[in-house]
Fold this sequence. Notes:
It is elongated, with a radius of gyration of 28 Å. By secondary structure, the chain is α+β, with helices and mostly antiparallel strands. A hairpin with an 8-residue loop joins strand 3 (about 140-145) and strand 4 (about 155-165). The strands form 2 sheets. A 5-stranded antiparallel beta sheet has the order 4-3-2-1-5. Strands 6-8-7 form a 3-stranded antiparallel beta sheet, with helices on one face. Helix content is about 55%, strand content about 20%. This is Mechanosensitive ion channel. Keywords: Membrane, Transmembrane, Transmembrane helix.
Amino acid sequence: MWNTMHEWLNALPVSEEIIKSALMSVLMIVAVIAGRSILLSAHFRSHPDLSIENKRRSLVFSRNVTMLLILLGLAMIWAAQIQTLALSMFAVAAAIVVATKELIMCLSGSILRSVTKQYSIGDYIEINGLRGRVVDINMLNTLMMQIGPNPLIGQLSGKTLSFPNSLLLSHTVRRDNILGNYVIHTVEIPVPIHLDSDEIIGRLKDVLEPLCAAYVPVIQQYLENVQAQKLFITPAAKPRVSRVPHDDKVYHIIVRFASPVSKRLEIQQAVLDEFLRTQYRLINQTK
């Protein structure tokens, strides 16, 4: 049987070495994919209480590792053929690099994200005006659920946004939940210049401080632990309401508070509701 297969391989118009490399490539890819499926299933069975987000994170991580292993395996299997063709294909390779510049930049951005750990699945990020919660990451792009349409609302719109990882090389990434389960949240509210800022700030504090009081001691202790362990300069957990001039028509009130990630929108909405009520009352008083 082996002799028959050997004769069949010799009869083909390509070399036996290339055919063997192709067969090894197919077997390697099948083995890696099967191994990934087995390990992932075993992981999910051994951790039945994993949340959907953690399962999604494991799925994305295993997929990216599988792709990396396949690429490394193919490079090792075809190393001899690649080396033989390297010199003769130098000009072609240069042309390919020029033609695939965007692809190379996407791969570079993906490597940068992995090395610097800029964000991962479940993080709230903003880049180049795009804001959302990350749901998928691969070697070329990042997919996230859009937050909007108004940035003050902060709710998921039900739409997805996808951006190439090449943006990571040229744009700043804003990540909201750098502190894990807690967040330092800031809301900037434009106010007509003729409205009394003292009364507005007083009203907002009366709403904000009771809502945050239960979280301040826990978050402050957490921030101190983060500062000691990671040598981060962490902000204070106490809520603050400040005012800053803007122009001759409006000034801005800056509301800043610390809360669990799951509570920040609820607290923010309570503050905005109180501002709208106070603004309505003050405007009607001036008429």
